[in-house]
Amino acid sequence: MDFTNTARDLALLQPNQELASHMAEETIDAPEAVRRALEGSRAALRQFAKDCRRRRPAYLMTCARGSSDHAAGYFKYLSEIVLGLPCCSIGPSVVSIYRAPLSLRDSMLITVSQSGRSPDILSCQAEAKRAGIPTIVVVTRHADTVPAPAC
Q: How far apart are CA 139 and CA 7, in angstroms?
């Protein structure tokens, strides 16, 4: 389904509001952002799927902030409907600010980030690695505009 024209129509409703215009631009770019993220992460996604079939986790987790968290929410529905795997969102600050140790046994982590470099996202990845669970980072920006993820 193509929502590009609908997003452009919404942008025209409030052309003088900077925030609305920025949000409309992100909405218009959403299908392309998904394509870029999938294209740039294809090999890692295949490996993650292979690990998922091999490990058979009890549940999946996502770690993201802002618009990336909205994309992760979409993945949650796909995971639960298509795979039958419950999926929950970890609040990045739970690990980065509150330093709460999480029980991550029998799970796998999907991180969605514009750059893969924010400290709270890195904290979630580090916690997952400490727990020994497989992780993947899906970066939503152009590869040529953002350095490779530090995760």
A: 23
